[in-house]
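Page 47, continued from p. 46.
Same chain as before, 185 aa.
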Amino acid sequence: MKLLVGLGNPGKEYEKTRHNAGFMCVDEVAKKCSLNFDTKKFKALMAVGNIQGEKVILMKPQTYMNLSGEAVGECVRYFNIPLEDICVIMDDLDLPIGKIRLREKGSSGGQNGVKNIIAHLGSQEFKRIRIGIGHDRKYDTKDYVLGKIGKEDAKDFEDAISRASNAAYDFITSRPFNRIMGDYN
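Result:
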């Protein structure tokens, strides 16, 4: 069983904001796999299906970004999902818009949603796909991440979401993650 978690914030006011890059990415994966987010469980919207013989859960925690670990932790414990079968997708201020970065494990990098997931799983040993949103220091960080992507950056951002969703699809179809990293990093 594979768990693919997109991080973001629920609600119309947060749609298409930089901080919802993870939600946008898992939405793309759901489209590719013909899955619908029609299940609400573990404080999350979930799309569940079988992809190439592997049971897959796509998750969008509804706890708001900073408490994402509550939803992820409950799901992981309920289904007894091994850490190596978890991949979390999130925005990253430290990457330029249009870039993605995959990692097999590591610290939160200051991302509060990831920090909360680490706390609830008791481990940093899960895969991540980071989507660059840049960081315009003219703006307060909170205002920047909760802002919408401008027209001048839209194409690069959409390309990054597309590449990240392709990498996420490769993860759920059981391709070795180190090879996926080599292809996308």
